[in-house]
UniProtKB/TrEMBL annotation:
Region ranges (Disordered): 174-197, 424-450
Listed name of the protein: Peptidase S8
PROSITE patterns on file: SUBTILASE, SUBTILASE_ASP, SUBTILASE_SER
Signal peptide (from-to): 1-28
One Pfam family linked to the record: Peptidase_S8
GO MF, one example: serine-type endopeptidase activity
Chain ranges passing through the membrane: 463-488
Swiss-Prot/TrEMBL GO biological process terms: proteolysis
Keyword Transmembrane annotated: yes
Amino acid sequence: MSRVGRRVCSVGVVGILAAQLVATPAYGQGTREEQFWLEDYGVTEAWETTQGEGITIAVIDTGVDGDHPSLEGAMMGGTDVSGGGDGSGGPVSQTNTEHGTLVASLAAGRGEEMPEPEEIEAEDFDDLSDDEWDEWFDDFLADIEEIYGEDWEDEIDEEALDEFYDTRVFPGIEDAEEDESDEEVDESAPWPERPAGVVGVAPEADILSLSLVLEDPNPYGPGTEDQIAQAVTWAVDNGADIINMSIGSGSQDWPESWDEAFLHAEQNDVLVIAAAGNRAAGHWSVGAPATIPGVLTVAGVDEERNISEDSSSQGIAVDIAAASEPLVGALPEGGYAMWTGTSGATPIVAGAAALTMAAHPELSAQEVKHRLLTSADSAGADGIDPEFGHGVLNVDAAVNGSVPEFNAEDYDTLEDWIRVHRRTDTDEQDSEGVPEDSDVVAGPEGEPRDLPQAAEVRSAQDWAGPVTLGVGALVLAALMTLAAVHLLSRRDTN
């Protein structure tokens, strides 16, 4: 009798077993098959050159669970700026606590190693009574449904499932146990050789986690404005090469208090990458920090490279587009989830920037940005499109391709913007200066300049009157002469 309709929950090895019964080998919801951008965006080709070793990506977000299997070995430190964390950069309780872990996994996830078949033995289940085995198997099926959703039966090999129930031996284990050679398991066996879990675009890059609370008011302490300024500064001072900001606001403007922090990143050659924002959240236009000059702004597209209707704001600040749906990422405490949004497209680009930096260590942050933008696959209108920017990310081309020569004048900087737009009233007064041909001499600093004396004023009036009268008399004489000539000419004609 078929057991496909029965239900369950599982422990230990269940997640592994469930993975092997799907038509396409999978492990939980963190599989390479689901990460289509690794192949479609040229990431796997770029890995032949580098996997991002030596590059540090700072994730300014809700905190990262460094204990997740897919992030094992990726964390190099962190801090909390919210007042609600433990100081390590771990997840801080709030509405989207899991957000930072999802983001970090797409940038620099390590994946998970699949256990070898011999690690699961048939006798693991032989000691169970029939009732205990039925209970265990029901829990097992429930776990499959939880992982793969309501349509899980369409993905399951029913014959393999029935065989597993009848024999209590998972398909492929007997063959693996009988094979005493040192050869790897055959590719046709149900045990996939490919890594499981979530593999980031730069799986050898390091992660710095800066945890904050994206809620106002912050129940633990400082508001978002202060947290972000502090986080950016800390990231720069603690070795970040790239700062990932999968956060955004509904305002194109940013508080003046951010100027110093983002300028600090620019002057220390740190590349800041930010999400364009999501229309589903009501952000139709790109908002800060993505609007700050010098920041690399990321829009989102679906698997067919159409601009995401729900997950991508638009505007002149958009630089490049990357996958934003459907995405798979790591959840705190070892889980995985499907998700969407430019929050996920941004770490994909951050990972690509890490690969580019590792492959071209001589380049500045702006030059890395230049390689990413000029190597992108064309999309949208000619030139810089308000939805796609320069086009869709091409990681292999950014890492290994030839790009146009870099010209710093082609890219805005925050330093220039501040000089033009943050001028104070005092700056404007000081910039007026004194004409070189004037007789006015500026007094000592803090004292008013000397005004023209009364005698000087009168002398100016003295020459103005006679000149005006003289000019008027000349004009009157000329008019009278013209009138006389006109009158004489009329008489001659008569």
